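Morning. Coffee machine broken again, so started the prediction first thing and wrote up yesterday's gels while waiting. Chain of 341 residues, entered below exactly as on the submission form.
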Amino acid sequence: MSARLRDIINNARFPHPRYVDAVRAAVGLITFSGSGSVIAMVGPPRAGKSTAGRAAAKEVYPRAAEDTVPYVIADCSRTDVGHISMRYLTLDLLGKLGHPFYGDGQHSLRLNLTETNARLQLRRAIEHRQTKLIIIDEAHHLLRVKSRSGREAALESLKCLGNETGALILLIGGYELLKECFCSAHLNGRLSILHLARYGTNAADIQCFDRILASYDMLLPWAKGHSLLDMREFVYAGSLGSCGLVGNWTLLALARMSATGASRLRMDHFKQARYEQQLEEICADIEFGEAALRPIEGLLALTERPLVDRAEKGGGSRLQKRRPGKRLPKRDRVGEQDHGA
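Came back before lunch.
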């Protein structure tokens, strides 16, 4: 019974507006973005980013012709003493593309090639397989490098791969990814941001969040008088509005229920399965991400209004009032130059 209930919760999928909108937005960006562009799908932990990215890719490329791989997905794993290895990521992509030298374990000598040679093989494989989309999941691990310059180099390497092959690069990761993406002017020139946001506290969002809680309630062995809906404020605070965190928390509560020998789920099981320090780290990440993704309208209001006000009040500088090419009135006035100097 426990294993069956675990599988039910693990496999539960509740389509909800945030997820549906993210898939639709991803389909649009994949379809209309220019070749070599970069898309970053970001959001809070367990918001459904990976699932949404894969669903969008399947929708854009439902079928593949023989010997072609229209899209490829690779997880960004840390392999070099806890740091990211672009060489390993390159070899992983070669394997996912079905390259004959990297698709199985019978060609281990090929793994000793340098990153430069592996990159050349990857370019050829992408062109041969007619790959249009490269998805890098857990892309925030690209920042796990030994130096700041290495972070920029990792992202620039993927951007250049898109330039060289014409493939679209889709980075899927946490808000941490924005810390480096926004620091590169060249990357921002090709970058589109797709935000799979959490649910807020406005009436519409709370209504959607309540429907998610009600869907989980139907699957859980609750004790009488207990439910997620009955403790919605507590659940929202503990999940920060991320429906994926609700599912993960539910599994932890079920584990706690099993450990205590109980047969029915209670609110106490949820309370014992979450810690304040966990929430502080997640909350800090979300606060950074939401602040970083402030709409441009607010920025324009801050930068343009002072200029408009000065123009209306006639307080602009003399340089703004002069016609192009007109001389400064106090500088080298005509007829007053010192010819004896």
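Residues 315-319 have pLDDT under 50 and may be disordered. Going to sketch it on the whiteboard this afternoon.
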